[in-house]
Amino acid sequence: MNTDACSAWLVGGTLAATSGIHVIQGPGLYGGAPDGAWTRIGHNQATAFRLLRDKRRVVLSANHGLYAWERGDERWLQLHDETLTEILAVASTSGDPGLIAGCPYGVATATRDALGAARWTFHSDALGPDERYTNALLVDPNDESRWLAGSEAGVVVYSDSGAHAARSDLWDVPVRALYYTCDRFWAGAERGGLFSSEDGLHWERMGGKIEGAVYDINEADNRLVAATGHGIVAGDAEGPWQRLGPRMLFATLAVDGRDPQRWLAGASPGGLWNTEDGGQTWNQLDGFKHVRAVLPPEEKA
Amino acid sequence: MDQQTYNAEVDARAQQILDAAHAEGRDRGLWAAHALMPHGPSEEDIVEIIRGGLWRQAECPARDLLGGPFEILPCMLLLCRWEEQLPDSAVALIRDFMTEAHLERGNTENHWLMAYTGMLLAAERWQDAEFAWSGLSAAAIAAEAKRWIGGIIERTALQGHHEYDSTGYHIEHMTAYIGLYEHVQDDALRAQVDQMLTLLVADMALEYFNGAWAGGHSREGYRQNTWTRLGGIQPLQYLYFGGIDFDPVSHTQGFAIPSVVAGYRPPALFADMAWDRSAAHVVKKTKAPRTIYRHARETARPVRKYTYMSRHFALGSTQVGLPGTQAGPIDLVSWDLTWSGPNHQATIVCNHPYRSPDRFSAFLNGFPQHIGRAISTDKPYLQWPDRLFGASPYERMLQHEGCVVVLYDIPATDDHPFVNVFLPNGHAWSEREGWLFADLGTFYVGLRPIGTYEWMTIREANNANILVREGDLIDGWLLRIHSVRAGLVLEAIEADEVESFDAFCAARSALQPDLSQWPFNKNVQVQTTTGHVLDIAHGGAHRIDGEVVDYDAYPLYEAPGVEAALGTGKIRFARGDDAVEVDFDIDPNKALLPMRVIG
Questions:
Q1: Distance from C-alpha of B133 to C-alpha of B117, rounded to nearest angstrom
Q2: A43 contact residues in B (CB cutoff 8 A)
Q3: Domain boundaries, chain B
Q4: What ipTM goes with this model?
């Protein structure tokens, strides 16, 4: 049983059917392996939306807060303050705490105060409600001060570390997933499928039609794979998308960097699903009811 | 009434409530145990109550528990008040829970207030403790809580209460602030809390109507808005305003017990204001914009309330300020007519039962694709076609004194292309020229549905699973107006202000609403029997006697004896020689706390 936050698979999800403040035991983050048991990491019981692993920690962005499991510390540290909640997206950047957070109230970055607490500053207050509501975040790998936000209004591009915000032409549709590969940005939309862009501002639809919203994008064996409202799809972004596995709202899809045929997909509702042959056959893993965040084991250098 | 006399009366009613809670055995929960503590409970009893409230049925260490506002606040209030009497085992349980369990804030204003209050009290008390749910120091936890509590107080003082005038949730606000008033160690925060309590009690007093809370409400329970007196606020209404018979059930509700046992006493003049029925008057309030975070291009505008407090009835309406079709908290009640009487027999209200999963995801972060089913699994009545609460996005209204015009412009594709009008079934109705009239003894009411209606019944019972013969939740007549361009005109008038009921019926039915511009130009004009003209364009201007109503000019509060300019944090409540002034001393250049909760 591997519960090391670095080398284990991590799954944020509920082992019970419900989550929220009116239950005596909540979800939390679980570590383990598809063929083994799952053990909660520490005692945090938050409802996870996104997971992030960087060189310092694992970050759990959750319904009511943002938390870090620092390497070597073996305890959860609160990263939210009284202005940050319902954190739907998170990305790494430089500095301390070195995070960008996206939530229904916008996009924010933090500094530490004298007491060691993270204090958040929002960069989206001038925008409208749909523009602020951030489902996904991506830092431009070529410019750390430039961030793409998948909002309810479309892709918003923040520049100069949040000083400016511009609309892209992927607009008037909620964007729920962002990804970067092959020197291009990729976006998954509520309608219309998958889009791609060189600069984040000008987008074109890629591949065939995708049924339902796209909630997560990943890659495996030179294919793009996406979690959608009606299952997993895979393809080369030029031809039609191949639908794989059971039909349900998959919110996340993680690919094992050591074995690109092994994927774990989280559904809400629907639980945790495993494939070891690149999506041809799937098995539901016992226990989980809702899963919105999965991280594969860390790839060792 | 002088403050000393008033305090003595409140003391007596507090003891009455506590005695009844104990005598009725309603003192066994985490909230209500304050009524048990003076009676010397055994250590076993106390531990059972605490474990029952925090662990419930679980047998596990505290670190495996999840705690929310409804555990965090009551356990800390119990500890802070009774620490000397609590056995060490009980104190240890609470400390374990507050330091080791995973604590969460929730997502509404009352949630965060309760959570931050309990967290602050814990951080002040155990300054060297490790709070596993946070990892931050007690000082950092306390600082965060104080920033939020202080910030929400300033927002309220400048812009109005966010989760406003809720019969169900006002008590959670009161109990949290009273807990802070009594136990917080920070004197500056305590002073602001004291002033905040003045505003919250003023909110209760200005629309108090014989035990009921008149006017619009941000949240008014589920399927209970045909009740005359309702919600968890009833114990404090009785405690602070008295004047009605004591009810050992509704006046001993648990959420209120920590406030009932407390020493906080509001200024006495609010009780006088609450019971002043000497002359009809208008109460206006501005409330904070609703939290809408998606399915909207613009933010919500401030809420403007108008409530006509007459001697024998109260008529209240709301400009909800919502920015789009999907925007709207689900249990908002925008208008009603209230008078004294049993449940279901003293309210008239109407509603278009709008439903859409997007309505939930406008302020909840669940996936829009699933949230309709997810919410309706827990609360199916939120999408029922008979719903009488919820404030349709297609609803607009204009009120002047005892007359209100409510119009609906509903898309033909709506799931529920009709409007529900609730009428009490214990009164004899008469009909003249399309108007329905009732002689309610001390006052008369006439209402004119706009559109073809069908006379039906509505009965809903709390535990119904087969047949409902008498609805304890709702029981009355339901007039379903089968039109997407439906509306209602209602006028109420004191009986001694007209010659007779027949005279009122004749005068009212002789003044038919001008529907010549409805629906094509979306305009309706109504002349009242008192000589005023209400002119409302759905989505356009509202005029009274030809003058455009300037809702933006509403102050924080407007009522006899009240001075409360919006955006100043300075409010004066006066009655006779008595006056209460609050000044929150807010720096006008200071940025407001961002609003991150719904309500």
A1: 16
A2: 63-64, 100, 102, 132-133
A3: 3-275, 303-553
A4: 0.96
